[in-house]
Amino acid sequence: MASDETLIRFLPDGPQPQPPVALAVFWSRSEHRAMITRWPRLTALLGATWDACRQRTERYCVLVDNNGFRARQLPGDAGEFEAFLAARGVAEPSEEDLPAYPDLRTVDVSAMTSWPPERNAVCWCSSGAKYKRCCRPRGSGAPE
User: Fold this and answer.
1) To 5 degrees, how large is the angle CA 97–CA 65–CA 109?
2) Cis peptide bond upstream of 15, omega within 30
């Protein structure tokens, strides 16, 4: 399994970079399924199930927050990931390709969301449930 440091990317944050911002890419249920179906080897990095994937994402965001950084989340897209690989001349992703996605020069900053959401807000994982009952409890354990 990749270390936490390889799964969190740091973003430039304008003229006042304090505290630094870390990017955590999250995969919706359908995008997670598409990724694992297309590239089964990524199961080790993404998690075998969507629940495992979103638990990892939540725990990484907790880790970022606990270390004085601000987390920003960005939804991952399997088609965009494939295009990202093609632009790099890669057919089969390695462990280094997933943490390198996306190319930060092309990211739509407005697509990023701040983490954590308010307790009563809709959860970031797109489940439709309130954050306090969905992913918030998933981040309370230690990272895998």
Assistant:
1) 55
2) no
Indicate the burial class of 107 (C-beta count within 10 angstroms; 0-12, 13-18, 19 or more): middle
The backbone torsions φ and ψ at residue 133, rounded to the nearest 5 degrees and listed phi first, read -105, -5
Cα(130)–Cα(137) distance, integer angstroms: 11
Q: Which two tokens stand for residue 108?
A: 């739509």
d(C-alpha 74, C-alpha 25), whole Å: 5
97 in Cβ contact with 88 (< 8 Å) = yes
The encoded tokens of residue 12 equal 């430039």
CA atoms within 13 A on the CB side of 90: 16
Q: How far apart are CA 48 and CA 106, in angstroms?
A: 29
* Calpha distance 32→38 (Å, rounded): 10
Place of tokens 């897209």: 77
Model confidence pLDDT, tens digit, residues 129-140: 999 888 888 776
The answer to whether the CB of 68 falls within 8 A of the CB of 80 is no
What confidence tens digit (pLDDT) does each residue in 68-104 have? Answer: 888 999 999 999 999 999 999 999 998 899 989 998 7
